[in-house]
Amino acid sequence: MHTGPSRDKRMPRWMMIVLAAFSVLFVLGAVFGKTPQPQQEQPVAAKSADQATSTPPTSSSTAPSTYRVAEIVDAGTVKVTGPDGEKIVRILGLTTPPNTNGCFAEETLTWAKNTLADQEVIIRSVSDEAGVALASVSMVNGGDYATTALKAGYAKFASRAVEKTIGTALQAAEDTARTAGNGLWGPPCFGKIDTPPTSVTPPQQPVAPPITRAEPTTKKSTPPPAAAEPDPPKTVSYANCDAVRAAGAAPLYAGQPGYNRKLDRDGDGVACEPKK
Q: Looking at the Swiss-Prot or TrEMBL record, what is one Pfam family this protein matches (predicted)?
């Protein structure tokens, strides 16, 4: 039995159109898939960085760092400790006497110890060869070490691996030492440091004859003759007081020549007194 008007339960037309459009897009996406994107090439700088990481260079220049000198191997080689641990450093621009048999080696090693031992230094590493860093070393408390050593004559200049501007200054320092005859440029090495010094006998100097001095013409004064010693006193003896008076010796006192107790009747020390 029909109780009321019938209702149309179909979907609205606009909604059917939207669903149909989504269905078409879904089918197209499933059929054709995602459009592949072109692969971008890796930047050249990145490739260079990767290659640098995989194959480290044998030579490089690093920023200056502060180290402390732990040991003096020789005047041109030191062992240091710093931010990257412990390492051996060969100082650029120097050739030093061998420690075993080199001329001026002992003096050079002593000077290096007094100058660098337990000191802080600034090192700019240039390259690394078999675990030994070739580096420029500056002393924190003053000056470039290589320049100081060359100017004082404790090393010779070696141009290997030294920049041109630095090498010019080092060569000038060596020239100064050579001209002044400082250190190894003076005797007995005269710049030869690879062998011990040879003893050189100095030439014999002619001996000058002794100088004969002329005697002065002034006549020497003759010393005065020594005073004649007095004759020893003669023994005087008087027989009596008359003899004493006759000799003019009366009276006689005790101790005088001729005094005799027999002539002194009253024993007062006076003999042959004048008659009263």
A: Excalibur
Residues whose CB falls within 8 Å of the CB of residue 178, separated by 6 or more in sequence, listed in order: 185, 191
In this prediction the pTM is 0.50
Q: Going by C-beta distance under 8 Å and a sequence separation of 6 or more, which residues neighbour residue 145? A: 91, 115, 116, 121, 137, 138, 139
130-136, long-range: CB within 8 Å, 24+ apart, which pairs? 131/87, 131/88, 132/77, 132/88, 132/89, 132/90, 133/87, 133/88, 133/89, 133/90, 134/89, 134/90, 134/92, 134/161, 135/89, 135/90, 135/91, 135/92, 136/91, 136/92, 136/93, 136/166
With left for phi above 0 and alpha for psi between -120 and 50, is residue 248 left, alpha or beta?
left
pLDDT digits (tens, 9 = 90+) for 67-98: 999 999 999 999 999 988 999 999 989 999 99
Q: Which domains does the chain have, with CATH numbers?
A: 65-185 (2.40.50.90), 241-271 (no CATH)
* Long-range contact set of residues 29-32: C-beta below 8 Å, sequence gap at least 24: none
